[in-house]
Amino acid sequence: MARQHKALSGGVIVLCLIFLLAPAVQGQNIVIKRRTFVISGAVGLPGVTMNGLPGAPMTDENGVYSAEVEYGFSGTVAPVKLGYVFEPKQRVYQKVKANHTDESYAATLLTFTISGTTGLPGVMLRGLPDDPISDENGRYSVKVSYGWSGVVVCEKTGYRFEPPSKMYESVIKDYTNESYKAHELTFTISGSVGADGVMMKGLPGNIVTSGGGTYRVDVPYGWTGTVTPMKEGHSFVPPLMEYPAVMSAQTNQDYTASVYTYKISGTTNLAGVTLKGLPGDPISDAAGFYEVSVPHGWSGKVVPEKNGYKFTPSSKPYAAVKTPFESQDYNAEIIEHTISGNAGGAGITLAGLPGTVVSDARGFYTAKVEYGWSGTVTPTKEGWYFEP
């Protein structure tokens, strides 16, 4: 072992001497590398491109970036992401000789204004962020983020709007004068009362029926009222209709009309007299009494008629009857006709004529007979005969 160790030591010494005495070895290159430094920080958003840094790195899911630059690097670095602006906008580097960490930026999402008028205060613009409400002048204004999309619908109870909606897709600019026109909602109340000229009191404008008693009117959303049909001399069933808050069309709102009637009555003091001119031309009864109903406002002329009779008064006029008329009496007188002539001498009796009829000194006679009288007249005088 001692002999081997000695021999090994001698060999090492010989090798070292050979190496020291040998000429230099050729082709052994030295590698030189430039020093590098790190530029890093946070932007607060993932996917932000850091333009200007080598390789244009992108922030990670935590919004952090990091890039390696060589000693002496110079450049301008600007974060870029669609829809965002950054503060600061950029950073300038000149001859970097150390690490730059915490080179952070604040990101702000771009916003745009959508504004206009609804024509009314208190209109909700449903679909815009936070569903804004138009001010006392009907105006609205709201900020939306870059690329915002949505459908906006105006809403206010009792109104509809034109256009009914507005669609926005990927907003990348301001939208001003985005206006709507408001129309008050109305609903129809309609029906029939069965008579023309009936005022529908309580409806807007107090409209009057026509065309067979029909009516129709538009009322605003939520209209409240009591409707009463009115016409002189008429009653209606139902007498009125109440509307607490109209929110839909009210059709077939019908009434039944009845006309007031008044009695015209009296006596003719004779049975079987026709009261010509009264409705139905009534005839007096066995006691001479008559009675008939006429509608409110009836006008006419009544003439009593019966063959062989005349009446006092001969007629009665009525204009726009609005009350009963009782004791509308007539006095009847039988009509008389005259039978007269010459009997051919004085003192001749005309037997058969009513009463005692005797010719006068000139032979003339005259007699009154009732209408429809029948009889045979015979002239008589002692000692005389007559032809015929």
Molecular structure report:
The chain is mostly beta strands. It contains one helix and 32 strands. The strands form 14 sheets. A three-stranded antiparallel beta sheet has the order 2-4-6, with no helix packed on it. The chain has a three-stranded antiparallel beta sheet with strand order 9-11-13, with no helix packed on it. The longest helix has 20 residues. It starts with a helix and ends in an 8-residue tail after the last strand.
Can you give the helix content as a percent range? under 10%
> Given the helix and strand composition, which structural class is it?
mainly beta
The major pleated sheet works out as: 3 strands, antiparallel
Q: Termini distance?
A: 216 Å
Kindly provide the radius of gyration, computed on alpha-carbon positions and rounded to a whole number of angstroms.
Answer: 62 Å
The overall strand count is: 32
Stretches where pLDDT is under 50 for at least 5 consecutive residues are 1-22
Number of helices: 1
Q: Average pLDDT, to the nearest integer?
A: 92
How much strand? Answer: 35-45%
Strand order, largest beta sheet: 2-4-6
> Which of globular, elongated, flat, extended, rod-shaped describes the shape?
rod-shaped
